[in-house]
Amino acid sequence: MDININTETKSQTEKSHTDNQELISKYEQQISIAIWIQTIGKIMEVLYLTKIMMISEENQADPDEHQVLQGVWIQTIGQLLEAIGVTKEVLAIDKTLLELEGTTLANIGDWVQVVGGIVEAHAGSQIIAEEREKLAANLFAP
Fold it and tell me: How distant, in Å, are the alpha carbons of 41, 97, 109, 129, 139 from that of 136?
């Protein structure tokens, strides 16, 4: 009788582990979809910013606005790399080498996004500083 209890407990534990693995796999697939939604949003953002740059003479003349656009392009490339990497990770049948390649690509994408964010944030800070200088000059004009 003791053997039956141990066997049942072991069987329940294995079933629970299998159920958890299936649930984790499902969530990983949903994460991949969510990242692709973010990627589509980022692509839309960069395309619209590019269109604004092309039609706005004021933005075309401002090097900081160009840097903002460059930063967003860099982030978009990083977001795309991350999406491809996560998808490769989730779809990997061989959970060793292919999964590691996907994880590596997703991580590279994260780092590229960080660099793009720094470029964009730096340019944004420059734009804010210039706007503050203009405001201060207008406030103290005789």
Answer: 37, 58, 40, 11, 5
Cβ density class 35-71: b for 16+ within 10 Å, e for less: bbeebeebeeebeebeeeeeeeeebeebebbebbbeb
Q: Sign of dihedral through CA atoms 28, 85, 114, 80?
A: negative
| pLDDT 10s digits, 112-132 | 999 999 999 999 999 999 999
